[in-house]
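User: I've been trying to design a sequence by hand for this structure and keep getting stuck. Would you show me what you'd pick, starting by listing the structure so we're on the same page?

Assistant: Good idea, let's start from the same input. This is the structure you sent:
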């Protein structure tokens, strides 16, 4: 199709490989994030995608024959409703799509609506449901944040990085909190064989991933929270991103793994991705053992942030979804939006239900009364062996 007067041509790819040439052409000038990169999505589709019934609907938009956007959508079926979503959005922290910067700056909401309507028409979707889109990104309201968008339940936490870590540390932490964190770091060092490892060897990555998975499982079981990496497919997904598992050549993958080790054991881990000048801190884990009181997770993220400040190619820190104390210490919330658009009668019915669900979830997550209550109930249920089975 061509958007009126703008020479925008739309192609729909039902396999990721079909969109690869457009992704490659955009690579040098890309506005994107790692969660919509070909490597991330290929790993997801080859592991988790089939079990979740994912069907790729990758939209390639061209202007005057040149690719200007790749929007990696998928088709999701639930309760008889076909929804257009971001592919793999269950295992990413935010969704942006991949854009040529000039087109990103100039595209209008009316053009986006024409494109989304045409994509849904071809894919047979009743409803557009685009979750966790940054409200403001690269200096403008994101084109996929529609006028009717609702607040996402959680923000991401991010900040610009200064070149001097000590300046950042003093700006974000009081004198007493700095002294407390440095004291804990010394306690961890005193346990012997202390090291913070940016895992490069295959053996270090394998050992770090095993610790991450074990620590996440223990934490989820104790707190009664869902574990996004409990399924074997999810664990294989992470292994692939780390360059591990069958078919890997032992080289590092798209994702990096950091861990803090002391006293002969790994006490904390962090999975990170460096992409487009941003350090994305994707997911972490902490050992609940005799060193927990010394906050190994806080010491580890402090070390990672110091590395990021010193790295000339990194300008932004992104600590991902969900409000945790350590995130608010280092970064500020960045609002995300969920865009909903109904295309059929069934879609309109689904739109009302989804809007209500999202508003209720956002209200609970942002309530000083309700959210702590939810967490206490989850912990109580975990103690009874009734841990939640639903996604957080």
């Amino acid at each position: 199709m061509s958007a009126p007067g703008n020479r925008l041509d739309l192609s729909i790819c039902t396999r990721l490989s079909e969109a690869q040439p457009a992704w490659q052409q955009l690579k040098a000038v890309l506005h994107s994030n790692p969660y919509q990169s070909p490597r991330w999505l290929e790993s997801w589709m080859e592991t988790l995608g089939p079990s979740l019934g994912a069907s790729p609907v990758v939209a390639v938009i061209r202007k005057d024959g040149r690719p200007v956007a790749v929007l990696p959508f998928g088709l999701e079926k639930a309760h008889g409703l076909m929804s257009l979503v971001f592919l793999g959005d269950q295992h990413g922290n935010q969704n942006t799509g991949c854009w040529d910067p000039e087109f990103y700056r100039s595209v209008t909401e009316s053009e986006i609506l024409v494109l989304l309507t045409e994509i849904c028409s071809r894919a047979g979707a009743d409803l557009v449901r685009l979750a966790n889109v940054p409200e403001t990104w690269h200096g403008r309201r994101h084109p996929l944040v529609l006028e009717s968008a609702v607040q996402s339940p959680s923000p991401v936490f991010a900040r610009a990085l200064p070149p001097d870590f000590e300046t950042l540390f003093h700006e974000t932490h009081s004198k007493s909190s700095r002294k407390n964190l440095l004291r804990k770091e010394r306690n961890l060092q005193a346990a012997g064989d202390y090291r913070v490892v940016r895992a490069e060897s295959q053996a270090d990555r394998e050992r770090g991933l095993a610790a991450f998975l074990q620590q996440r499982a223990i934490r989820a079981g104790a707190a009664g929270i869902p574990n996004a990496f409990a399924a074997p497919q999810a664990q294989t997904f992470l292994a692939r991103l780390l360059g591990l598992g069958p078919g890997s050549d032992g080289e590092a993958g798209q994702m990096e793994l950091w861990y803090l080790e002391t006293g002969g054991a790994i006490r904390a881990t962090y999975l990170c991705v460096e992409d487009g000048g941003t350090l994305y801190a994707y997911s972490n884990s902490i050992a609940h053992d005799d060193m927990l009181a010394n906050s190994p997770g806080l010491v580890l993220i402090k070390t990672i942030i110091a590395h990021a400040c010193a790295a000339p190619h990194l300008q932004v820190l992104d600590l991902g979804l969900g409000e945790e104390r350590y995130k608010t210490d280092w970064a500020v919330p960045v609002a995300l939006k969920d865009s909903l658009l109904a295309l059929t009668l069934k879609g309109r019915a689904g739109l009302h239900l989804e809007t209500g669900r999202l508003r209720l979830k956002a209200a609970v997550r942002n309530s000083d009364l309700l959210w702590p209550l939810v967490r206490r109930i989850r912990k109580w249920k975990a103690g009874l062996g009734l841990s939640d089975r639903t996604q957080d």
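That's my pick for every position. To get oriented when you compare it with your attempt: The chain has a mean pLDDT of 88. The two ends are 38 Å apart (CA to CA).
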